[in-house]
Amino acid sequence: MSEVTAELLRLGSTEEIAIAILHKQKGENTTIHGGNVIANGKAAFKSEPDREALVNRLSDAYAWLVAHGCVGTNGSSGGWERVTRQGAELAANPNALLQLQADELLSPSLSPELLVSAKPAFVRGDYETAAFAAMKAVEVRVRELSGLSDGVVGVKLMRAAFGKDGGPLTDVSAEGGEQVATMELFAGAIGAFKNPASHRIVHFDDPLEAAEVVQLADLLLRMLNRVTTA
């Protein structure tokens, strides 16, 4: 377990300091008082030349705990609060912070196609399915807009749809290099994140990476929406 040291306060992130504060507690429903956290910090670091800055970092971290539902009211007076279930999970599981960061990375206004497929899989922790479903949504939308046959799939579909020489989704008003770049963007995304999962088991152990794939798919779908309104 990490300690709330002067070095951590100087060099650590707000999240890391917040988790260290939680580590000093005894799990869910432990009472905690923000004022006491600050007072203890002032006493512990009274000999440090940058004591005020260190205590301010403690304050930042406590505010983060409150904002992220790790500390909540216990109904008592006098400013006493309690460590929530989420707070206890974050303290006990190092990967829980990564999951929280990944959840926050996902836009609250994802494209409708992703809300019914990729996001539910992501929430379940099935990151492989989330990434695959997100890119499949892109492929389905490209096929719908381009009118190309079901026999053209994956990277070939992207190159046919956005090809410089008459691709149905090619932006004819764009410069040639931009047309190629758009084609490669779609082809690369499908080739890297959908095709491998179509042929073998792909392990996504990093929820942040999976969230970024879903966000990339969301960007591509938004670009496709511009095709329909052009």
Taking the sheet with the most strands, its summary is:
3 strands, antiparallel
Shape assignment: elongated
Name of the top-level CATH class of the largest domain: Mainly Alpha
Radius of gyration: 24 Å
- Please identify the structural class as seen in this structure: mainly alpha
Give the strand line-up of the largest sheet: 1-3-2
Q: Which second-level CATH architecture of the largest domain applies?
A: Up-down Bundle
Low-confidence stretches: none
Span from first to last CA?
55 Å
How many individual domains? 2
Strand fraction band? under 5%
Arithmetic mean pLDDT: 89
Kindly state the number of beta strands. Answer: 3
Number of helices in the DSSP assignment: 13
Helix percentage range: 55-70%
Enter the CATH topology name of the largest domain. Four Helix Bundle (Hemerythrin (Met), subunit A)
The H/E string reads HHEHHEEHHHHHHHHH
Overview of the molecule:
With 230 residues, this protein is mainly α. The chain folds into two domains: 6-92; 105-229, Four Helix Bundle (Hemerythrin (Met), subunit A), CATH 1.20.120. The chain is built from 13 helices and three strands. The chain has a three-stranded antiparallel β-sheet with strand order 1-3-2. Strand 2 and strand 3 (80-83) form a beta hairpin. The longest helix is centred in the C-terminal third of the chain and has 23 residues, at 207-229. The relative contact order is 0.11. The mean pLDDT is 89.
